[in-house]
Amino acid sequence: MKQAGSVAVAAVLAVLAGGVAQAQEKESTKTNPLSVREISDSDIMMKKTLWRRVDLNEKQNQAMFSKNNQITKYLIDAVKAGVLVAYPNDSVSTPMDVSKFAEKLAVPDQAVALTAEEKAAGFGDEAKTDDGWGNATPKDKKPAAKQPVDDGWGTPTKTAKAQPADDGWGTPAPKKKTTAKNTKGKKGAKPAPVVPEPPKVDSAAMAKAASPFNSANERLADEYSVLDIKEDWVFDRKRSRLYFDIQTVGIIIPADKTPSGLEQPVAYFKYKDLDKLFRSDPKKFIWYNFQNQAQHKNLADAFDLRLFWGRIYKVSNPKDRDLIGQYGSEREGLMKSYQIEQELMEQEHSLWEY
């Protein structure tokens, strides 16, 4: 009897232990759809989301921003061609309308709006003109009478009547009678009807008129000099290595290029789409190697090899604040950015210490 009771207790404990073990295991085998190299969620041991700001005018990043090979120019041209989809923010959930993207590229109107007091004082009223001394010039109600043109000495010149053409000897030439050569001897002949040609349709001009983009009113390619990169710092326990898994890339207009003096985001893109675009033409989308022009890299390989530098300005946190917002000043935010960079490097190094 005692033996049967102990067996039952052991069976119950085994069932409970199995249930606990199953509860601790991750049943999800999903992967991140934005990752170029997908890693199963169950294989991720550590993860942090980082936001970096890449200044393409810095020396280390100029290889991505060489003349006529700016990475931002390639992205904008791809959107215009319909090859790439733009998004308004780094969540990349809802595509941006093409007309809205065209507005982002246009140079803003920098005309200063006048206040009510300035308008009441007469500023901006182009209808009012003065004589240069602040006195308004009176408008003539009656038009001035036409004065005869003089000969330069004050004497009005007489209008010369049209003289008949002469034969070169002073004698007026007789008028010639015009007769139709083809109608000689043919009375009542009707001319052949003229068939109008159909107008030619310029398909290129029609496509240009339908396009919302106006290259004459767009910013220069050098003005899009900042990239906003969102990436996951991931440790894959199955492969026992660390990955910087780039999720999105955004184009930012720097503060010194905008009338408001603030950074202006243009659009964001899925890095998975960019990787596919860059690898579609390795010789076009290049990372310029100024040390050896025979060894230019493809931009997709340059991202994989981390041939760029971007300052960390935000790390995932409960209140979704950037470092400046968390620590109160730009100086403290900058110092914390370098500190986080060192901590991530030391954390990776500590994984291989025994």
UniProtKB/TrEMBL annotation:
Residues 174-189 have a biased composition (Basic residues). The keyword Cell inner membrane does not apply. It comes from the Bacteria. Residues 123-200 are annotated as: Disordered. The keyword Signal applies. Residues 1-23 form the signal peptide. Keywords: Signal. InterPro entries: Gliding_motility_assoc_GldN. This is Gliding motility protein GldN.
